Amino acid sequence: MSRLRRDSSLITGNRSPTHPLSRVELLAGGEFVGWDARIDAQIRLSALPVGELTPRCRQAVQAAIGDPVAKRLRRVRATLFEESVAEATDPEIARACGQLDEMLAFNLAALGCRHAAAEICAAALDRWSNLLSSGLHGEAYLVLRTAVVWSGDAAFDRVDAPYHPEPNYARLSQLDLDPARMSEFAQAVSDSVAQLHAAEDVLRGGVGIAAPQDGDLALDFPDEPGTLAPAVEPPEPQAGRTLVVVPSLGHLATPTKYAQERRDSPRAEFEKIAGRGLPLLPAPDPQAFVEEGSATAPWLRPVFEILAQDLVGAPYAWLRPTVLVSPPGTGKTATVRAVARLLGLPLRLYSAAGASDGSFGGTSRQWGTGRASIPLQAILQEETANVCIGIDEIEKSSADRRNGSLGDVLLPFLERENARSLFDLYIETGVDLSAVTYLATANSVAGIPEPLRDRLRIVEVPSPGPEHLPIVAANLIAEIRGERGLDASWLPDLDGEEIELVGRHWRGGSLRPLRRLVETVLAGRDRLAPRH
């Protein structure tokens, strides 16, 4: 299993495939051709014998090859399925159509289709169960990791969002399962099974009790007659703080059984948290927050000290709405991720660059599709009342108000009193989003509208200097390790000579050129490495 974790390509195939991978490889975390789901779909569809398909199916295939967007892939999957089950279809053509219908689920899920992501998640869990039964624990680990990643994408549809091709292994590495917690989970399951077996043995009069004698029950009496054995009271569980985010949804119509199974109605989607007190994750110690953050990024200590002021005596983890401002490439987004991690809060990053509508605040069901606001979607997925929403490049959102604007929509979310009862267009009731933390980034405050700027705490983010090069380089190497699925033994930190070499060309400031320099050094390592 450790070998597979270091190099999963034995199961997942080449990390830069030149031809489409098999279903088994994709379920284990395999890649698309060119790391692009659209190119991969075009190659798969082009391999079909188009001339032998029915005109309707042929037309759908050709349209999807020309423009493999989610809408056309959905249509071509439907026609391929019909072709595969039609009695008049040649058996070989039917088999090819059926297999391609299954494979295109991966491409469609990558383009943001929640139903395709759920389909893959279910298939991965089914294969995980079969692999466990066969004792193939290493491959089972990879497949379970894939199921976890796709389950997150199945929470809400992203087909309308821009598609940005990226390798799958980067996501899989970032969302890697914690082996220690998995081990604890496996031990807990093993203990529970052992307890159940012991209880069954006791009920049968076997292991665990002494055999009855003289027809009497073998009871354990206290030493002295007339006294009772002291009762051992279980410790009372400590009740954590909770917050009811979504009130009762009794005003909404009860969904049909079909809608409930698909969870495509607001009541079916949100009933699991309606009227329920969701946990509020506790605030970290302010001093520990500053020290831990500064240990990995000492130049950011002033930022952590400002943010830590909100944690003094705080009943739960929450920060005032804040915008981090610094020149491009200085690690603002990475700082948002670090702050969320130190707070212990789930993070959702929302790219404001080019946002030209008010969909952040949710959309009404009067349109063809509806959805809740971005914060409420995150709360539903995490089942936690305090989450962190990162709004990247907030100054780059469009000022056009014809379809609503992000700047206008954000205003009530950032006012804590208003957020206590914020009307959600999708579920048509007030929700309590007062425990949500909002952290934005900007290259300059000049592009932020005045009303929005008035509601945000502006924090200038210092840039790392040349004296911070060893720490920054170590952070970048750790990031590259995660992307490549390697550990320190396979990708060690830069040594003294390499640090000196990089330092000749980087004098502080933007981290993007520094990353390119580090990657150049690593490429040099690969070229000079001995081959056996």
Description:
The model is unreliable at 201-230 and 234-238 (pLDDT under 50). The chain contains 23 helices and nine strands. The protein has helices at residues 2-6, 9-12, 23-27, 37-46, 55-66, 70-85, 91-110, 114-133, 137-153, 168-174, 179-203, 257-262, 266-270, 286-296, 301-308, 332-343, 374-382, 406-414, 416-419, 450-454, 469-484, 496-503, 511-528; strands spanning 242-244, 277-279, 322-325, 347-351, 388-392, 422-424, 429-431, 437-442, 457-460. The two termini are 24 Å apart. Helices cover 47% and strands 7% of the residues.
What structural class results from the helix and strand content? alpha/beta
Largest sheet: 5 strands, parallel
Radius of gyration of CA atoms, rounded to a whole number = 28 Å
Helix content: 40-55%
The total beta strand count reads 9
Q: What is the average of the pLDDT values?
A: 82
How far apart the termini lie comes to 24 Å
Indicate the proportion of strand residues.
Answer: 5-15%
**Stretches where pLDDT falls below 50 for ≥5 residues?**
201-230, 234-238
Overall morphology = globular
Number of helices: 23
In what order do the strands lie side by side in the largest sheet?
4-5-8-3-9
How do the helices and strands line up, and which of them pair or pack?
Elements: H1 2-6, H2 9-12, H3 23-27, H4 37-46, H5 55-66, H6 70-85, H7 91-110, H8 114-133, H9 137-153, H10 168-174, H11 179-203, E1 242-244, H12 257-262, H13 266-270, E2 277-279, H14 286-296, H15 301-308, E3 322-325, H16 332-343, E4 347-351, H17 374-382, E5 388-392, H18 406-414, H19 416-419, E6 422-424, E7 429-431, E8 437-442, H20 450-454, E9 457-460, H21 469-484, H22 496-503, H23 511-528
Parallel strand pairs: 3-8, 3-9, 4-5, 5-8
Antiparallel strand pairs: 1-2, 6-7
Helix pairs in contact: 4-5, 4-7, 5-6, 6-7, 7-8, 8-9, 14-15, 21-23
